[in-house]
Specification:
The protein is α/β, with parallel strands linked by helices. About 35% of the residues lie in helices and about 20% in strands. The longest helix has 20 residues.
C-alpha cells in the first residue's frame, strides 16, 4: 500500500525540503553541465534525475513542480541543464541526441560517485527521448517516467536530429528496457503525436501509458498539467516505497 503522498508544505522535514545545492559535473568530453541537487542528506535518499525538453532548462515548470512534490515525500532530485542549455556549457550547433544521452549517463555517474544507489529518471519531451536511450545503456536506473516523450515537428527536420527521428532510434532502444516505466501523453498533442506514445509503450516491456484527454504537448490547461504531475508523482513514490 502506498503511504499518503504529500502535495502541500508540511512542517515535518521542512528544513530538508528547502535544501538545494548548485553544482557542476562534466560529460564524457569534459563539458561542464550545471545542476541543482535538492534534498541532499548524509543518508542517501532515493533520487530522481529530472530531464527537461529541448530549448528548456532545469527550472522548467515540470521540473520545479515535481521537485516540490518529491522532496516533500523524502525523495531527492537532481535537475540539470543539458549541453548548450541554461547554465551548461556547449555550442548550440553541436547539440545531438547522442550528446543529450551522454549528459544523462554522466549525471548517473555523478550520483553514483556521490553514494546514490536508488536512482530513477523523468524525461519530458525531447528529454524523454534521450532518457529512453540512456536507460537502454545503463543498469543503474530503478524506474523511468516519461512526459510526452519524443521529437517535435520542427526539431525532427533539423540536421542534428532528423536521422534519429527517421530511424526512431529511441523505439529500438526501448526494446531492451525492463525497468518499470510510465508514459504520460496528451491526446491532443500535435507536436509529438499520441501514436508515437502508444508505439513507445508497446516497445517497453514493463510499461504503462496514461492518456490525458484534451491535453496538448505543453499541458497548457492547469488541470491537465496538474494531472500529469500527479500521475508521475504517484508512480515514482509507489516505486520508491515498493521497489
Amino acid at each position: 500500500m502506498i503511504k499518503q503522498i504529500i502535495f502541500e508544505n508540511q512542517s515535518k522535514h521542512k528544513k530538508d525540503e528547502n535544501m538545494e545545492n548548485k553544482l557542476q559535473f562534466k560529460d564524457s568530453n569534459w563539458v561542464k553541465l550545471s545542476g541543482v541537487l535538492s534534498n541532499p542528506s548524509e543518508v542517501k535518499l532515493p533520487i530522481v534525475i529530472l530531464c527537461h525538453g529541448l530549448n528548456s532548462d532545469k527550472e522548467s515548470s515540470t521540473n520545479t513542480a515535481l521537485n516540490k512534490v518529491l522532496t516533500q515525500n523524502r525523495i531527492a532530485t537532481l535537475r540539470f541543464d543539458f549541453f548548450a542549455h541554461g547554465e551548461s556549457d556547449g555550442d548550440i550547433d553541436d547539440r545531438t541526441v547522442a550528446e543529450f544521452v551522454d549528459d544523462i549517463l554522466s549525471a548517473i555517474s555523478y550520483l553514483k560517485s556521490n553514494g546514490y544507489k536508488d536512482i530513477g529518471i523523468v524525461g519530458s519531451s525531447f528529454g524523454g527521448l534521450a532518457a529512453v536511450i540512456a536507460a537502454s545503456k545503463t543498469k543503474d536506473l530503478k524506474f523511468m517516467a516519461l512526459k510526452s516523450p519524443g521529437m517535435g515537428k520542427t526539431s525532427r527536420t533539423m540536421t542534428n536530429y532528423k536521422t534519429d527521428f527517421e530511424t526512431k532510434s529511441w523505439f529500438e532502444a526501448a526494446k531492451t528496457i525492463n525497468v518499470p516505466t510510465l508514459i504520460v501523453h496528451g491526446k491532443a498533442d500535435v507536436d509529438v503525436e499520441i501514436e508515437l506514445g502508444y508505439e513507445l509503450a508497446k516497445n517497453i516491456k514493463n510499461s504503462k501509458i496514461e492518456i490525458i484527454e484534451g491535453a496538448d504537448h505543453r499541458y497548457t490547461k492547469k488541470e491537465d498539467f496538474n494531472k500529469a504531475i500527479e500521475l508521475i508523482s504517484h508512480f515514482i513514490i509507489k516505486n520508491v516505497q515498493n521497489p
